[in-house]
Structures are given as structure tokens and as C-alpha cells.
């Protein structure tokens, strides 16, 4: 069963979205997002975690994903370490119907002696009108307790629209 | 804050059918839907895929036009990994492969985004697990229905007239 913890509906330009309220009431969390548009072409939506309400911007994020492209057999695998955020999307666009949708499961976030782990899947209508998606995972390599998350772009794009919801998976 | 995965509808395949229409399940109550299908089998001994999803609009019309794009990553137990991309298709393939009941079935989950929003496209993320007499296949995929219209339901379609569905259960939830 999903229990909604927090939500943010964006309808005007903002530099980031924060969802807080993660506690040890739940072991696993689910973040969903849909109808997400950014203000600049060829940008991506990224994820950072909050510890005691403070966003962690250090190079403690590793992730990897594969790309699925409706127009190509190319897989464009990405794997990288020591980043300052986890990449959730790619090639966002500002054209008609170009947007991002997806979900992220978050594990181990409430155990202070462990890293926080994620899996993700997205469905995107990307820049230049391409159907794309990614699936993969990430690790926040900080032994800490996480109490929230921030969604943003690191390259100057704002979030223009989107519905962001954070759920706990009931024990 | 209230929230839940809320049951909307369940339907079982009755008799034999080439298409299964799940109508009037999307509304303004949810932005995201979870569709769980399980135990889909067909009437003949085949080793082939089921075409997949088409969408039904507010006029209860199934869109059979070439308005769908998808990409599916195929992972076979033999070790073969591949991608099936396609644009301008008349369906979204969600990785379903099956057989007659003695030889296999397919089950999986699909998340559907924004179907009821008449100003946006409708998006899909899919996960499937299936077996037929020649392979065991697991997949993850994405799809886009490239028509900005209000979508109220969906169809699971098989285009080969000799491969009717005989078993299967579909359950639709709203992610509140």
C-alpha cells in the first residue's frame, strides 16, 4: 500500500522542487513525477537528497542507466561515479508535448549506517520529438539518514510544470 | 496526507478474443495508473509476441492509427539482450510474449502517465516477464501515444487472427 507523504504541483517556473517528510515510518519510498517540463532544451532532471533538511551537494552520487530510443537501436549506456546528483532523465525539450514522466524507488534511506539506493524508470518525449526512456539505478554514497529530496537541473534550466509525489510503502 | 494505490477495475479474459478493451478506467482523479496483467495465454501453439496496447479516447474509439512510438529492451534467458525500437506504429509493444497454456504465459506491469489530460500525450513504462516454447523473455520498455486527447481506456491487441487470447487477468489501479 502506498501512503502519500508529500506532493508538489509546479505550474510556474521554479529552480527546484523539494519533498520532505521521509522518516523511519517507512523503509521504502516511491517518487513519481509526470508532466514535467524544463525551460531549456537538452537538459535533464536530477535528484539530490536532504539530510536534516539540508541538501547534500557533494560528489557522493553514483548512477548508471541504459537508454531506450524509439528511433534507434542505440543503447547509449551511462555509468558514472562521484557526481553531485543522480540523473533521472535526458534530452528534455520545450517543443509541443515534450515532457518527462517516471518513478524512482528509494531504499535504505532511513538507516544511518548505510548508503541510500535508487532504481528508476522514465518515459520521455524528448527534444526533437523523440520517444525515449531510461532505466537504471543510483546510489547516494553517504552513510546518513535522508529526510527528503530535491529535484532540479544543474545547467540553468528551471522546472516549468510537473506533478511530483512522494509515497511511503506501508510496512 | 491521504494517498494510496487505489483499485479501479479488474477484468478476466472470457472465451476467446483478439482484442480486450478496458474502457472508462481513466479519469481526472489520477495522473498515473498502474496496470497489472497476469497469466495471458493464447489459443494456438505459437512462439510470438502480442502487439500490445492501443488507447481508447473519450468517444470510446480505439485509435488504430500510426500514432504510437516505443522502445523495449529485451532480456532473454539465453543471454541475448536487444532493443526493439519503433515509431509511427499502430500500437505500443510492452514486451508480451506468450504461448498456448501448456507452454507458457506472460505477466507484467505498465505505468500509464497523463491519459486523461487532453493537452498532453500519453506515456507508458512497461515491465514484462513471459515464456513461450522457444524462449523466456523479460523486458522493460517505454512508449508514447502521440495524440493529445483525453484517453479513457486501453486495448490489448493481437493482430494475428489465429492467436486469440484464452486466459488472462487485467487489473487497473490509480496512483493517488
Explain this structure to me?
The complex is a heterodimer of chains A (171) and B (176). Chain A contains no helices and 13 strands. Chain A is an all-beta fold. Chain B has one domain (18-175). Chain B is globular and about 40 Å long. The N and C termini of chain B lie close together (11 Å). Chains A and B meet through strand 1, strand 3, strand 6, strand 9 and strand 10 of A and strand 6, strand 7, strand 10 and strand 11 of B.
What is the H/E string of chain A? EEEEEEEEEEEEE
For this structure, the quaternary state is: heterodimer
Number of domains of chain A: 1
Distance between the termini of chain B: 11 Å
Instruction: Please give the order of strands in the largest beta sheet of chain A.
Output: 1-13-3-9-10-11-6-7
Number of helices of chain B: 0
User: What spatial order of strands do you see in the largest sheet of chain B?
Assistant: 1-13-3-9-10-11-6-7
- Helicity of chain B, as a percent range: under 10%
Bin the helical content of chain A.
under 10%
Number of helices of chain A: 0
Q: Give the class of chain B from helix and strand content and strand pairing.
A: mainly beta
Amino acid at each position: 500500500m502506498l501512503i502519500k507523504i508529500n506532493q508538489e504541483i509546479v505550474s510556474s517556473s521554479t529552480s527546484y522542487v523539494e519533498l520532505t517528510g521521509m522518516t523511519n515510518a517507512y523503509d521504502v519510498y516511491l517518487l513519481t513525477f509526470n508532466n514535467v517540463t524544463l525551460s531549456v532544451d537538452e537538459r535533464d532532471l536530477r535528484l539530490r537528497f536532504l539530510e536534516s533538511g539540508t541538501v547534500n551537494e557533494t560528489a557522493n552520487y553514483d548512477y548508471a542507466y541504459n537508454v531506450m530510443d524509439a528511433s534507434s537501436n542505440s543503447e547509449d549506456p551511462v555509468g558514472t561515479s562521484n557526481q553531485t546528483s543522480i540523473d533521472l532523465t535526458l534530452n528534455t525539450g520545450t517543443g509541443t508535448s515534450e515532457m518527462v514522466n517516471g518513478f524512482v524507488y528509494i531504499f535504505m534511506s532511513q538507516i544511518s549506517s548505510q548508503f541510500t539506493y535508487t532504481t528508476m524508470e522514465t518515459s520521455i518525449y524528448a527534444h526533437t520529438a523523440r520517444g525515449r526512456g531510461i532505466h537504471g539505478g543510483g546510489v547516494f554514497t553517504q552513510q546518513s539518514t535522508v529526510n527528503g529530496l530535491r529535484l532540479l537541473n544543474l545547467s540553468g534550466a528551471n522546472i516549468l510544470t510537473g506533478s511530483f509525489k512522494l509515497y511511503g510503502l506501508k510496512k | 496526507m491521504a494517498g494510496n494505490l487505489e483499485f479501479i477495475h479488474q477484468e478476466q479474459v472470457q472465451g476467446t478474443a483478439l482484442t480486450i478493451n478496458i474502457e472508462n478506467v481513466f479519469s481526472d482523479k489520477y495522473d498515473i495508473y498502474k496496470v497489472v496483467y497476469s497469466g495471458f495465454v493464447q489459443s494456438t501453439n505459437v512462439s510470438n509476441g502480442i502487439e500490445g496496447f492501443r488507447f481508447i479516447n473519450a468517444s470510446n474509439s480505439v485509435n488504430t492509427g500510426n500514432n504510437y512510438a516505443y522502445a523495449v529492451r529485451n532480456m532473454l534467458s539465453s543471454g541475448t539482450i536487444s532493443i526493439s525500437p519503433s515509431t509511427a506504429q499502430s500500437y505500443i509493444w510492452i514486451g508480451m510474449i506468450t504461448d498456448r497454456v501448456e507452454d507458457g504465459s506472460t505477466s507484467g506491469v505498465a505505468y500509464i502517465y497523463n491519459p486523461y489530460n487532453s493537452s498532453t500525450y500519453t506515456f507508458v513504462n512497461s515491465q514484462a516477464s513471459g515464456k513461450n516454447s522457444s524462449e523466456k523473455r523479460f523486458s522493460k520498455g517505454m512508449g508514447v501515444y502521440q495524440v493529445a486527447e483525453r484517453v479513457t481506456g486501453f486495448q490489448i491487441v493481437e493482430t494475428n487472427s489465429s492467436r486469440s487470447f484464452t486466459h488472462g487477468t487485467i487489473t487497473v489501479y490509480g496512483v493517488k
